[in-house]
Every structure is written in structure tokens, then in C-alpha cells.
């Protein structure tokens, strides 16, 4: 079993992979709507000044496509390790931040937080989920693709079932068919896991793409 490696993992070819699907739009075949099974604009439309944070945002197409349909005082924030590979002018409501989601922290809360197939490349996945839970507004919605098989104990044995149980106890819902975690309402989350490192050589996950395995005690 490969020995877990300490973060940061950004220099790993798995994490810094510019061939992964970075072009998902808001709707359609290759889209957030298809991956998450949610009409994101409907969730934001009833809010007077909606805010959306997209973690591991790739080229930011979904937020760019959403911008014209939302009010002028909307706040859209895209955070990605490398940012758009093709620079282009951003809509006034969109801020594109080049940073690691493992260390970045927002200065505000959000009505919607998404992470579409981004957790697969994060070392401390559970740590990011607990932090993101506190970034939600009182009735905000968090949606993130999650692979329990990527959660391991320090010796490499599976810990996914225990992780899902702990996440559900903290208020998350998990849909195993979609590999989707959801959380409604911002809160402080504490999980009985301590991150000890990650293995970027764990191999393909359920998407068929190489992914990171996160190790905990």
C-alpha cells in the first residue's frame, strides 16, 4: 500500500490535471444540472441578492452562463487551483479566484455552494466539507460529489461507511446513486476524523479518472 503523502498535493500530476473535465456548463449533457440533479437557478431565483460559490470551478462556464439570468447584485465566486486555462473577460458579478480550496477561506457566506467532481482531487476532503458547511447562509444549499471509497484509515483500510455515517449524523444527506452529498443550512460541523495524509496514486475512482485517497484516524 502506498504511504500517505502530506499535503499540499498541488504538484501531483493527478491533482494538477489539465485534461480533466473543466468545461461543464449550467445545463445540458455535460452540465452541473446533469451531475447534481438540481435546477440551480431555481434555488437562487427567489433570493433578493443571491450568492453562489463554486469550488474547483474549472473554466467557470456554469457561473458565466448563470450570470445573465440573475440579478445585478448577485455574487458569483469561482475558486480553482489553476483558474480558467483560456482567459476571457468575466461578467461583473463573477469573481474568479486562483487558489487551493484546501487553504482558501471566503469573507462571506453563500446561498449556494457547489463542488462538482472536485473533492476527488482534495487531500482533506472531510476537512473541506466541514469548512464549507460554515460558509452557507442560514438556508443555503451545499452540493458536492463524494466518493466514500476514497476515505481510508491510516493503514489504507476502508473508512467510507464510517465517514458517511458521521456526515449524516452532522446533517448531510448522501445519495449513493449520484455519489452526491447535500447539506441545507449553514452550521458548525465536527467529525470524528483526523486527517493524516493523502495518496495521489490511489488509481481511478468511480468516474474512471485517477483520484486522491484521503487517510484519517
From TrEMBL:
Q: Which InterPro entries match?
A: SAM-dependent_MTases_sf
Q: Single GO molecular-function term?
A: methyltransferase activity
GO terms, biological process: methylation
Query: Pfam family example for this protein?
Result: Methyltransf_23
Coiled-coil ranges (or none): none
Q: What are the record keywords, sorted?
A: Methyltransferase, Transferase
Return the protein name.
Methyltransferase domain-containing protein
Amino acid at each position: 500500500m502506498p504511504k500517505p503523502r502530506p499535503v499540499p498535493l498541488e504538484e501531483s500530476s493527478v491533482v494538477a490535471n489539465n485534461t480533466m473535465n473543466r468545461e461543464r456548463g449550467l445545463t445540458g449533457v455535460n452540465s452541473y444540472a446533469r451531475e447534481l440533479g438540481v435546477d440551480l437557478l431555481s434555488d437562487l431565483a427567489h433570493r433578493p441578492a443571491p450568492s453562489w460559490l463554486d469550488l474547483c470551478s474549472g473554466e467557470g462556464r456554469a457561473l458565466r452562463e448563470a450570470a445573465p439570468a440573475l440579478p445585478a447584485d448577485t455574487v458569483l465566486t469561482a475558486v480553482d487551483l489553476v483558474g480558467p486555462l483560456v482567459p476571457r473577460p468575466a461578467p461583473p458579478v463573477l469573481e474568479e479566484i486562483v487558489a487551493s480550496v484546501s487553504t482558501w477561506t471566503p469573507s462571506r457566506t453563500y446561498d449556494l455552494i457547489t463542488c462538482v467532481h472536485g473533492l476527488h482531487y482534495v487531500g482533506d476532503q472531510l476537512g473541506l466539507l466541514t469548512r464549507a458547511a460554515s460558509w452557507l447562509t442560514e438556508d443555503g444549499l451545499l452540493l458536492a460529489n463524494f466518493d466514500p471509497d476514497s476515505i481510508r484509515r491510516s493503514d489504507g483500510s476502508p473508512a467510507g461507511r464510517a465517514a458517511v455515517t458521521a456526515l449524516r449524523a452532522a446533517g448531510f444527506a448522501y445519495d449513493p446513486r449520484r455519489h452526491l452529498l447535500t447539506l441545507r443550512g449553514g452550521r458548525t460541523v465536527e467529525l470524528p476524523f483526523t486527517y493524516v495524509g493523502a495518496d495521489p496514486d490511489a488509481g481511478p475512482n468511480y468516474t474512471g479518472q485517477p483520484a486522491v485517497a484521503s487517510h484519517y484516524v
